[in-house]
Write a structure and sequence with these properties.
The chain is α+β, with helices and mostly antiparallel strands and 171 residues long. It has helices spanning 3-12, 63-75, 137-146, and strands at 21-32, 35-41, 50-51, 54-56, 77-80, 83-92, 96-105, 107-110, 118-124, 150-157, 160-168. It has a single domain (30-168), classed as Nucleoside Triphosphate Pyrophosphohydrolase, CATH 3.90.79.10. Helices cover 19% and strands 44% of the residues. The termini are far apart.
Length: 171
């Protein structure tokens, strides 16, 4: 590659930023009877997108405790039969680094409610609205649905995915 082409390639990709902060979060996907619990996120990172209940892990809280708490707070349901499905690492060019533990639950108890954070809905697993989700979700969510442990690494510039990798997670 010529020096000119190398220089052009270097400028076509946003530079990697040192982390301005590293955050730890969870996602909790309840999958039962061929349906998956999803939400339309109302605020925060990913507002307007479809996702699963989840959020930041609070100090002194385990990832599993956070998944249960976030599910109750966002949609009024308590996940049952919770198991770790995978892990996701996100780097945003603005410097945000996010590590996310992904859980799968076999059912949920309680009464589903809409909150100021999320509008929940059940969706057939064959009809997941990937076009309304983060670009990476279609790469790893099938692994969760099939029961294959996964690790995903992604780099984003805003909503645009720049780099991606999904691989098996050894337990």
């Amino acid at each position: 590659m010529t020096a000119k082409r190398l220089q052009k390639a270097a400028h076509s990709r946003p530079p990697k930023s040192p982390p301005k902060e590293e955050q730890h979060a969870v996602l909790c996907f309840v999958v039962q009877d061929g349906e998956i619990l999803l939400i339309k996120k109302k605020r925060g990172l990913g507002a307007g997108k479809v996702n699963a209940p989840g959020g930041r892990i609070e100090p002194g809280e385990s990832a599993e405790q956070a998944a249960c708490r976030e599910c109750r707070e966002e949609v009024g349901l308590s996940p049952q039969g919770l198991s770790r499905a995978g892990e996701l690492f996100f780097e945003f060019v603005d410097g945000l680094h996010l590590y996310c533990t992904v859980f799968r639950a076999r059912s949920a108890q309680g009464e589903m409610v809409e909150t100021d954070e999320a509008a929940p809905f059940w969706c057939r697993t064959q009809a997941i609205p990937y076009r309304d989700m983060w670009a990476d979700d279609s790469l790893w969510l099938p692994w969760l649905l099939s029961g294959r442990p996964f690790r995903g690494t992604f780099r984003f510039d805003g909503d645009r995915m720049l780099e991606q990798r999904v691989e098996p997670l050894d337990r």
